[in-house]
Amino acid sequence: MAGSLQMELTMMREELSRERSKNQSAVQSAISSHSQVEMERDEALAGVRDLKQQLAATLGDLEIAKADCERITMASTNLQTALEAFQDEREAEMRLTEEHRLDLEEAIRAAHATAIEAIKQTHMSEMKQVQAAADAAVRNSMEEVTLLERKISSLKTENLQTRRSLDEAIHRLQTTQEDVIDRTLMKNILLDWCTMKEKTKRQQVLELMASVLHFTEEEREKVHLTHMDIESVRNRIVGAVAAPLPETKADIEHLEGQNVREKWVNFLLAETDDAM
Predict the structure, then answer these.
(1) Do residues 233 and 210 lie in contact, with contact meaning Cβ atoms separated by under 8 Å?
(2) Per the domain annotation, does 54 fall within a domain?
(3) How do residues 156-193 score in pLDDT, each as one tens digit?
(4) What is the count of structural domains for the chain?
(5) Taking 70 as the threshold, does the pLDDT of residue 55 lie above it?
(6) Which of 94, 154, 182, 195 is paired with 75 by a 20 to 30 Å CA distance?
(7) CA 158, 161, 167, 170 torsion-angle sign
(8) Can you tell me the distance from the alpha carbon of 259 to that of 160, in angstroms, rounded to the nearest whole number?
(9) Which residues 6+ apart lie within 8 Å of 209 measured at CB?
(10) 105 vs 23, residue with greater confidence
């Protein structure tokens, strides 16, 4: 029995030793935990102090912001009041300006109406004068037209008579060759008379010229010509034969032109073209 007690005592001692070790471990762990908690507490306290400082700074900033907000609100209120006063003053000026503009437009409208009426009266008077002048000009023009028609009729009659005279003269010119002298003949006779040195031959050439030009007895005496045989002298001069006037190529009955001058010019042009 003593042995069993000894064993129980030993077991109890061992149990106690284990409990003691366990308690020591727990105490050691508690001490470590307490140290950790104290460290965390210190850190938390430091954080709280920092937060308190930040809170104090934030509260200060908030107070400053509130003061700024109140100042800005006051400034905005003052500005709004000033703007409202300026707007009222501006509206009053605009009303005065609008009234002045309306009065000015009314005065200008009345002045324009008066000026337009005066211009209308002036233009009506001028139109009456212009109408009277135009009527007088029309009457004068009608009288001039009547005179011109009479003159045109007279000119047509004169033109017809002149055309008949021209046609008759052209007809006589074509049918009569007695008084027509060839220019080449006269040129040759004159050259012979100027180039000849012998007096007898010069006298013969002069006699031939007088015969061709149909000198009268008085004209012959003025140039000291005698009654020589004109035919014998003419036969001795080479080339001294007048060529007959060629027949005209123009159609006398169908000459172009509105008057005598144009017909005469067209006749001469036709004769010149045929000669060329």
Answers:
(1) no
(2) no
(3) 888 788 777 777 766 666 565 555 566 677 777 777 77
(4) 3
(5) yes
(6) 94
(7) negative
(8) 9
(9) 186, 189, 190, 193
(10) 105
Q: Are residues 192 and 172 in the same domain?
A: no
Cα of first residue to Cα of last residue in the chain, in angstroms, is 193
> What average pLDDT does the segment 87-110 reach?
91
Rounded (10°) angle between helices 183-195 and 199-212: 160
At 96 the pLDDT is 92
- What is the residue type of 149? E
Q: Residue 58 has which token pair?
A: 């934030």
Nearest Cα residue to 167 out of 159, 157, 155, 179: 159
Query: Which pLDDT score is estimated for 253?
Result: 60
Cα–Cα distances in angstroms (integers) from residue 28 to residues 8, 15, 16, 23, 31, in the given order:
29, 19, 17, 8, 5
CB 193 within 8 A of CB 202: yes
Instruction: Return d(Cα 116, Cα 111) in angstroms, integer.
Output: 9
Output 8 or 251, whichever has higher pLDDT: 8
What are 109's two structure tokens?
């409208």
| Closest-CA residue to 240 (of 203, 186, 200) | 186
Summary count for the chain: helices (H), strands (E): 6, 0
Residue 211 neighbours by CB under 8 Å, 6+ apart: 230, 233, 234
202 close to 180: Cβ distance less than 8 angstroms: no
Q: Give domain status of residue 131, yes or no.
A: yes
Residue 205 located in a structural domain? yes
- Burial letters 205-244, b for 16+ CB under 10 A, else e: bbbbbbbbeebeeeebeeeebeeeeeeebbeebeebeeee
Question: What is this structure's pTM?
Answer: 0.25
180 by DSSP, 3-state: which? coil
pLDDT at 67 over 80: yes
**Could you give the CA distance from residue 107 to residue 104 in angstroms, rounded to a whole number?**
5
Domain that holds residue 270: 252-276
Residues 105 and 137 in one domain: yes
**8 A C-beta contact, residue 167 and residue 252:** yes
